[in-house]
Amino acid sequence: MHKKRYGIFESFANSVFLNALLFFLLSFLFLVLTFFVLSNRSAYWDYYVTDILQHQQHTVLDYVMKAFSWLGRVKVAFFAICMASLFFLISGKKREAILVGSTVLSGAISWTLKMLIDRPRPGADVVRVIEETKYQSFPSGHVLFYTVFFGILCIIVYYSKSISRKAGGIMISLLAFFIVCGAVSRIYLGAHWFTDILGGLIIGIQFLQIARLLYLRSRPDPDHDKPETTLPD
């Protein structure tokens, strides 16, 4: 049996105008955030959030946060993308395999923005740096990857006709949990500022908007294969 979806949510999600408006607002928000970052006007909130997350320090918590952060490393992320794409390909779901594979583009987007904005990483003289990192800081490449990779899996789960609403809700909640924990880990480890996280999240959501649109447009028409019915004379 096909799952029934919430009409209001579907109407909003499928509205071209509302999606375009949301994309524009997110772009504007990213530009404003970039301005605050470059002018150093975000320093208060960056220090404030870092202080909160690094206030409670424990060796076990350090390892937990390193584990969540490990998932976003380039080699690990690439391996996860390949394995997920291969899984869907073997399962006969070519569109889903391509959708997951598109996650690799998030790395190129992240690197390009980092080079253009050129924001330095948090220093050990102002925060507790647990994990040494490379490249620039804004936006967070880890968070961009988490948002896109796990977000795409959420899209696939949500529109899957073979997964019940209850099971789908549990899976989506778990995937969202990984996004949140991954984002928190980057600040806790001293690898990113709070505004870096927001930047990665904004770009990630925009990526998902486009990915979802292309995914739905490539889906076969559910009424296409239905046999035609004729009325009796």
Ordered list of secondary-structure elements with their pairings:
Elements: H1 7-13, H2 16-38, H3 43-55, H4 59-70, H5 74-90, H6 94-101, H7 105-117, H8 141-159, H9 165-188, H10 194-217
Helix pairs in contact: 2-10, 4-9, 5-6, 7-8, 8-9, 8-10
Task: Describe the structure concisely.
By secondary structure, this protein is mainly alpha-helical. The protein has helices at 7-13, 16-38, 43-55, 59-70, 74-90, 94-101, 105-117, 141-159, 165-188, 194-217. The model is unreliable at 1-6 and 222-233 (pLDDT under 50).
Features:
233 residues, mainly alpha, 10 helices, 69% helix, 0% strand, disordered N terminus, disordered C terminus
Largest sheet: none
Instruction: Tell me the overall shape.
Output: globular
The secondary-structure class comes to mainly alpha
Tell me what portion of residues adopts beta-strand conformation: under 5%
What Rg is obtained from the alpha carbons, in whole angstroms? Answer: 20 Å
Average per-residue pLDDT, rounded, comes to 87
Helix content: 55-70%
Order of helices and strands: HHHHHHHHHH
Distance from N terminus to C terminus (CA atoms, Å) equals 32 Å
Low-confidence stretches: 1-6, 222-233
Structure notes:
69% of the residues lie in helices and 0% in strands. The relative contact order is 0.15. The chain is mostly helical and 233 residues long. The N terminus and C terminus are likely disordered. The protein is globular and about 55 Å long. The protein has ten helices and no strands. The chain starts with 6 loop residues before the first helix and ends in a 16-residue tail after the last helix.
